[in-house]
Design a protein that fits this description.
The complex is a heterodimer of chains A (about 350) and B (about 325). Chain A is α/β, with parallel strands linked by helices and about 350 residues long. Helix content of chain A is about 30%, strand content about 20%. In chain A, strand 7, helix 6 (about 195-210) and strand 8 form a beta-alpha-beta unit. The longest helix of chain A is centred in the middle third of the chain and has 18 residues, at about 195-210. Chain A is globular and about 70 Å long. Chain B has one domain (about 1-95, about 175-335): P-loop containing nucleotide triphosphate hydrolases (Rossmann fold, 3-Layer(aba) Sandwich). Helix content of chain B is about 30%, strand content about 25%. Chain B has an eight-stranded mixed sheet, sandwiched between helices. In chain B, strands 2-1-4-5 form a four-stranded antiparallel sheet. Classes of the chains: A alpha/beta (about 350), B alpha/beta (about 325). Chain B: It holds the Pfam family ABC_tran.
Amino acid sequence: MTPLPVETSSPLIETHDLRMTYRVGRGRVLRALDGVSLAVQAGEVLGLVGESGCGKSTLGRCMLRLVRPSGGRVVFDGIDITAMPERRLRPLRQDMQMVFQDSYAALNPRRPVGDLVAEPLRVHSAPGGGRRNGVEIARRLVELMDLVGLPQAALARYPHEFSGGQRQRINIARALALSPRLVVADEPVAALDVSIQAQIVNLFMDLRDRMGLTYVFVAHDLAVVRQISTRVAVMYLGAIVELGEADAVLHHPAHPYTAALIAAVPEPVARTDGLPPPLRGDVPSPIAPPPGCRFHPRCPAMRDRCSVDPPVLRRLPDGREVACHYPVLGAEPDLMPGLPAFLATGPAAGRPRH
Amino acid sequence: MEGDTLLAVRDLTVALPIGGRLVPIVESVSFTLGAREILGIVGESGSGKSVTSLAIMGLIDVPGARVSGSVRFRGRELVGLAPRTYRALRGREIAMIFQDPMTAFTPVYTVGWQIDEQIRAHQKISRKEARSRTVRLLGDMGVPDPEQVAGRYPHQLSGGLRQRAMIAMALSCNPALLIADEPTTALDVTVQAQILDLLRGLRRDYGSSVLLITHDMGVVAETCDRTLVLYSGLVAERGPTGALFARPGHPYTAALLDSIPPLHGPRPKRLPSISGSPPTPDERPAGCPFALRCTHVHEACAVRPPLVACGEQDVACVLPTEGRPLPPRFVPEFCA
């Protein structure tokens, strides 16, 4: 991956105190997003990770205004799109596209691939204004198939004739048809077998380099996220608990939840030692999140303050942001006396790698 | 070892009628499972891992299907067993858990009622005795407040609790063999770690052997004593988990491991990937099924390779017989 872009440029997309609530009956409210603020610079790949129900997909959808957030702001390229009517939003949609997990559900089974990939080209006007003619569209389709590594013959075939990996290439081709600047990919490789997954991850990385794309990559697989991301945001129950450079966050997690999440990933390596004790309990319901720090009932380093005082996201000396009263700081692991050794210094210490 | 063998599968072939002819989905799968052992069957989708487990359970009920070969459980041949006899065996001596506990429980009865029912189907004990055993089992499975959970309906439980309840139900008659088909695939990673921890404890606490079916190489590495790698319905490699992961002997195993992005250490610039996709059963070549995607392919691969010893493993590849076993693992170019 190329180095991070300089932070002085204005971000391509940013959210400020973003909130998304759903009424779930009997006066109860589900807080899918509870005040999320982040900024993604052009050329960056932001990985959004967390367990189911943490709000990572909702955040991705809010960023693209597929849903209208209940509160806060979404700013795309300096323009506030939070409450923008659909009619005005439409021209901006050319610049922001999405790739979904279920490659089959995302494609109309009754239409040939060429038709599906051409749709955005027909719906949106050409850069200079006016509609694209048939020749222009046909030329673009050829380019797109080439870009995602599919043969031209694919254009005349139907979605069911392709394997999962090939179908995801079709989805990517459609998302890139209008040369967007931002692509939000929601678990794009989760449904694929590992040997195919590697092909698609490589494709995402190649396309980013070739087209200067910016990704928001939503995934639960930490290893996939580390491979593709420049920065990572870890979410828990609707809020960001840790946000920073991918290597910093995943190699030296500061938040106990990040550390536990990394420790829980089963790794395909020959095992030489015992495994760390798993985290207790389930993720609580987002309808009734715990008071104080949302993670405190499961936290191995919980102290009195954590159950009453909700921590806010704050910047650590190394630049990352953490929502924890007692974060693990690289040089001072003894700040967390309650943590088992494997958590106190990051998982690498307790689990040697080959 | 032979004396301790609980399950011995030899040349298991399952053929299903597709397009008017019998197509072998699984071909000549052989392995043994010892007492208190955890064996992992790992493969990508379509590799035949679930069909293998269903055949062992006698649950292949497609009209016209043919199951051949031998499945010996505690010395008793299971292939061709009468459905009635099989039914008495299932649940009591061999139990199975699935990826989706929601479909394994009926939604209209409480979880406790269903576990009681399972116990009472195989043993003559009173409702009250059955319930107290249910509560104890749920407690053993790490269910907090088991008495209360027993009175709940499946939809009222979280995914992790449902999976624990299903394992409790599977263990209710103290089976010698537990077949777990993707038991953690639908769970979050922190909950998966708890369930894998539970499965590892079963042999100690219940003396059970576990056949763990999964697509996740990481789950196998952290849970299983021995591993069987399936590719397109055939055994590609089998052996002790540690050796297999440290020095895979089959080009497929090696390529599969290489294509998984590492979570630690330097980050590869590109992920080594396997080109193409696995052949479907009716397109499986007569020779090595992996030949089309293999970087070591040569003339000898046109003949189906038998399993041969290679290090601590058995490998279905011609390379070891040609005296040139697989070179050490590919080391990718890392980012700075």
